Every structure is written in C-alpha cells, then in structure tokens.
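tl;dr need the bound structure. longer version: we got a ligand (arginine) that a collaborator sent over and nobodys looked at where it sits. i said id run it. heres the input, straight from their email, havent touched it
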Amino acid sequence: MSGGSSIWGGRFGGGPSDIMEEINASIGFDQRLHAQDIAASMAHCRMLARQGIISEADAESILDGLSKIADEIAVGKFHFQRALEDIHMNVESRLSALIGEAAGRLHTARSRNDQVATDFKLWVRDALDRLDLGLAALQQALLDRAETHAADVLPGFTHLQAAQPVTLGHHLLAYVEMAGRDRGRARDARTRMNESPLGAAALAGTSFPIDRHMTAADLGFDRPCANSLDAVSDRDFALEYLSTAAIAAVHLSRLAEELVIWSSAQFGFVKLPDSFSTGSSIMPQKRNPDAAELVRAKAGRVIGDLNALLIVMKGLPLAYSKDMQDDKEPLFEAADTLDLCLAAMTGMISEVTYDTAKMRASAELGFITATDLADWLVRVLGLPFRQAHHVTGSLVKLAEQKNVDLEQLSLAEMQSVEPGITQDIYDVLGIESSVASRTSFGGTAPDNVRAAIVEARRRFFEGEGQS
Ligand code: ARG
C-alpha cells in the first residue's frame, strides 16, 4: 500500500493495492519520455504565463524547477518512483518538492491525456527521423558496394533457381530502392503526425484562454490537432511508425537471408567479416552468420509489435482509455530492435567480401543464357517467342544429354534442331554479353547500373536537409 497521498488523493481514502500499483504503473518504461515530458511542460508553462493564466513569477520558478529536474535525470540522480505511476506525475511531484506551491499551477488547462499524447508524439517523431538516417546510411553502404561491383556477374534467381545472369551492383541497388521507399514512408508519417495534441486537455478542450498555436510552434509542430477528442485518442502516429518499421524490418530480413545463404560453403558468394560472424564451440571449420540470422529473426518482433498495438487500439471507444498506456512498450521495442538491426546490416554490407569469381563461376551453371538464345531466335529469325521458347527447350535438353553448356553445342547440333541458326548465335550465349544486352530502363547492364547509381544518389541524397 502506498497511502492516500497521491495526486488525486482528495477523492480517495486508501491507496492502491500493491498489485494495482504494479499493473497501473508505467514509469518502468515511460521514463524514456522524460526529455519530451519536460519540454512539453516548459512550452505549456510559457504559454500559460503569456496568456496571463499564471503569473510570470510562478512561470519562472516552474521553468527553473523543470530544468533542475532535467539535470537530475541527466546525471542519474532522479529517483523514479512506481508509486507515482508515470513520468508525468514523477516530474510533477519532484517539481513540487523543489519549488512548492507554484508547481501545482502547471497542470492548469491540461491533463495527462494530452500530455502523454504530446510526449509520445515527440518521441515517435524523433524515432522517425532516426529511422530515416539509419536507412540513409544503409543506402550509402549499398551504393558504395554497388559502384565497385557494377559489372560483376552472378546468377539472378527466380524460385531460387538460376534464371538469368545479373550484375551484383544491380542486385544491391534493389535494396537501395526498398530502403528508399521505407524512408518515404517515414517522411510521410512524420508530415502527417506533426500536429500538437497539447491543450486538448482531458478530452473536451478547456475554458482557460490558452494558445494552442503557441505551444504547437514551440514544440516544432506544424499546427495544433483540430479536434480535442481525436487529439487524445489518436495513436495513428505510433501505428504508422510501427508499420513503416515492420516493412523495413522485412526488407532487412530478406537481405539478411541472402547473406546467410550466400555465406554457406555451397554458395560461397560472400565471406562475412570476423566482426560480424562467430565460430562454433565444437566445429572448428565453422564461421556462423549470427548477426545476419538475428536480423532475419528480429523482423518477427517488429511485426509482432505492430500487431500488438493494432489489437490494443481495435474497438476502443473515444476518447482516452488506459489501454492506450500499452502503446509504449511495443513501440520502444520495435524502435530499439530496428535501430540495432539497421546498424548491424549497414556494418555487414560495408565489410562483407564478395567472392566475385565464385559468383561468376556459378553463373555459368544451369543454362542461364537460354533466354538470350530464345530472344536471338525471335530477333534474328523472326520466330514467334513461344516457338523460340520451344526450340530453346530442345537445345537445352540436347546440351543436358551431352553434359555440355549451350555454347559448347556445335553449329551442326544447333541446326539439327533449328536449321536457320547461324554462327552469330554464339555471340549472345556468353554471360557478359547477356548482362550487357539488358539495357532497358531499370535493367541489369553494367552501364545501366552505373547510371542508376548516379541517379539514386541524386534522388535520395540531393537536397538533403532542405525538405
Ligand atoms: N501513463 C498514462 C499513459 O501512458 C498517462 C495518461 C493517464 N491518463 C489518465 N487519465 N489516467 O497512457
């Protein structure tokens, strides 16, 4: 029991039971909102004074007390108490110990409902900016590697079966696009969420002559939220962060999966750096891609966090319900997880060694230029593609029977299947000529890749900081 001295103590005789306190308290996790909570209180305080709702003297002492609290927290001297439930009441109670009566005026014309919505929005806004930066760093790492490997060839897969040769630069650029869309989602979400809930008070607004535009501007919001009921019950911004995060985590897990497969001895396309691998305690030959495996796994958590909050919000009537206190842990977990996964992936991509000889050798297997052969039959002999496909299939079968590559079939053997074939066909059967021919917009030809890198740097990095 913690006695009847809580902030709403006026109406209560006894304190909450220990279990009630445990289920009710959020200070264990919402102390992460301390900087936002203090910033929002300072903005509110300045506005109250400007509007003549509290005196300048009280405002000064409140601001002074709040900055002392910020210092105490910064140096680890602040004593967070579960009995005080959450960050808002922990700060207010300390303020009252520091400055006395004036502390009680800070909560004029506001409620914890608009307070928590404001604090949490400020935190999520920073998390969106951090996500944008983390994704940009990953893009830079990918672009650097793509530049080096613009012309190096590996098998491109569909169904994880060798399909057509592609360039490594092209493959890496695919992930630059994914990260670019993730950044777009983060920026869109930031624009949409940047409205201030502060001053919505408990749910209905307030009778005090507050200036919500002032507090909004002070906290870097574009404007106040238009509807007080919506302001305190909206958690779309958290859901949008989480959906953006979940999609980004899925992208990272796909890249991670490729590192896992590619680093196996059977593929041997990459060698992970010592800094991102571990050995086995029993099998001395092993170098395990643990970091990549964990990035692959952790997407599960982020997806779970999105689900958790969607389920909390589903069916909640307006306006605030305590259910919404459960928005924070999933979001913090997702943000911490994603920040870590992005850092790990950026590190791996920067430091991994690509075995381009192994990739190229692998691209020789599996009749990977069969499509080039079929395209030649269409282009040069004028066969309908379906017929060219059939002829090529017979040639592949013949090569398979003779245990040779397509380009090792003699011209006579080729002509036994399609009499129109000429010596020129051999020009399109090589791996390099295959990739070099894929010059359609967005295609894999090395020249395209080089141009695409320049274009990607322009699209994703020029005008940076001006948006
Ligand atoms: N700790 C609460 C939360 O995170 C703050 C808002 C509480 N409001 C209330 N009316 N009990 O949601």
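gonna send this back to them w/ a short note. The first strand starts at residue 153 and ends at 158.
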